[in-house]
Design a protein that fits this description.
By secondary structure, this protein is α+β, with helices and mostly antiparallel strands. It has one domain. It has 3 helices and 3 strands, in the order H-E-H-H-E-E. It has a 3-stranded antiparallel β-sheet. The longest helix has 16 residues. The radius of gyration is 22 Å and the shape is elongated. 9% of the residues are buried. Keywords: Signal.
Length: 113
Amino acid sequence: MNKLITVAAGLLLTSSAFASNVTISQSSSLKTGMYESKSEAYAAGFDLSDSIAGMDKSQLKNNLSLWAYNTVSDITIENSDVVIQETATSRGNIGYRAIVNLHYTFKTRESKD
């Protein structure tokens, strides 16, 4: 029994030696709905960008779909920009959509199996 406890403790200490913290940089694009004018689309894009900037770390983790990583910390939005996509749904019917490009970093634990 003592040997089993000793082996289990040794494995626990060894497994933590195979994990390290890494910083990952990623980009995501979020789209708004369609608008009749570019100015409306830009306003919606900047509203979305401001909304993302105001989120706490937990909200960012969920909205940026970082659920695939076991542990995520120190999420930082490095920068963002808003571009407009012009789309014609039919001849003479043009709509505008804002695309918010986010560039962010976060820390996670990387396991070395």
